[in-house]
Amino acid sequence: MATEYLGKYSRNTQGVLRLATYKEPVFGAKRTAILFEEHVLDLNTASQVYLVEQERDLPYVSYSESFAPTSMQRLIEAGEPALTHIEKVFKYFSNGLNPEARGPEKQRYVFGRGEVKIEAPLRPGKIVHTAGNFREHAQEADKAGWPFPIPQWISFLKNPDAVIGHDDHILKPSFTNQLDHELELGIIIGKKIKNVSPEKAFEAIFGFTVFNDVTARDIQREEMKNGLLNYGKNLDTFAPLGPCIVPRKYIGDVHNLTMELRVNGDVRQSGSTAKLSVRVEQIVSKYSWATLNPGDMVSTGTISGVAAFRKPDPTPFFLKKGDVLECEIANIGLIRNTVMNAE
């Protein structure tokens, strides 16, 4: 069941709409939700309740299926009309939640945080990973003697099948001894775009999430001798994502968000999107040379503080069985994962 998904930089942020995917506890179906500090609100049923109580002339079942669907992918594809409706639902229930409330079919739709499992909010159609956009990360690599340069505008594709969610386990393969973390801001695309300007690119962003680019450094180092970035970053569970997606208009100043990654409570990465050397919309515009579709994700690259670049000896900082990672970005939330050995 879900542990805390808001941290010290995101807890006192009332009025922020957080869209999530959770596992319904009776039948186990994955459904969309709105996250509150202590409660998970089933989005589709809450929409029906809102319509029955506030806009009685609308067909509540079909309208909710269209504009508050149970699938995050369908929600993103529904666009602005869906978000406009969801905002009304969010404001209506922000005044208070009743855990005993029932929907039109007598179903529960308000759950305590500990009653349900929070899943990854989305499995992106593709993940375009970028690097070199936080110059402090490149500088720490130079100082640590990393054998490969980190110029601006590095890019590669991350495997969507590696996506896991809040409280899921990161599986450490037996063939790596240098498992590392990279905290990043995930940019969720909301409109189909190709070769767009930065201005139009920002308008095409649906929202933002927390992303951890888990990396096997020893495998990465060998692959990069041939100019590749593949298995070292794409093994199972190497893409923790969540705990929610915050729509663009609720993020505040996206270029001034505190970022922090902790391992067993120890701060390992600490920074801010204010230290990006390029803007978020420039990143999306740059990589729209390939068509970006609703539900795709583009990452920003990581801040400084990764294990591989620790001096004088990075060995104690690589991840091991039992390590608990907390990745947090202000206004979004916190995703927690525990490292376990893969079978």
Helix vs. strand class: alpha+beta
Strand content range? 25-35%
Shape: globular
What's the level 1 CATH class of the largest domain? Answer: Alpha Beta
Distance between the termini: 23 Å
**Average pLDDT rating:** 93
Helix content: 10-25%
CATH architecture of the largest domain: Alpha-Beta Complex
Radius of gyration: 20 Å
Specify the biggest β-sheet.
Answer: 7 strands, mixed
Please count the helical segments.
Answer: 9
Low-confidence stretches: none
Order of helices and strands: EEEHHHHEEEHEEEEEHEEHHEEEHEEE
Fold and architecture overview:
22% of the residues lie in helices and 28% in strands. The protein has 343 residues and is an alpha+beta fold. The protein folds into two domains: 19-119, Fumarylacetoacetase, N-terminal domain (SH3 type barrels); 127-341, Fumarylacetoacetate hydrolase, domain 2 (Alpha-Beta Complex). It has a seven-stranded mixed β-sheet with strand order 7-6-17-11-12-14-8. Strands 4-3-2-1-5 form a five-stranded antiparallel β-sheet. A hairpin with a 2-residue loop joins β15 (258-263) and β16 (266-272). The protein is globular. The relative contact order is 0.19.
Which descriptors apply to this entry?
343 residues, globular, Fumarylacetoacetate hydrolase, domain 2, alpha+beta, 7-stranded mixed beta sheet
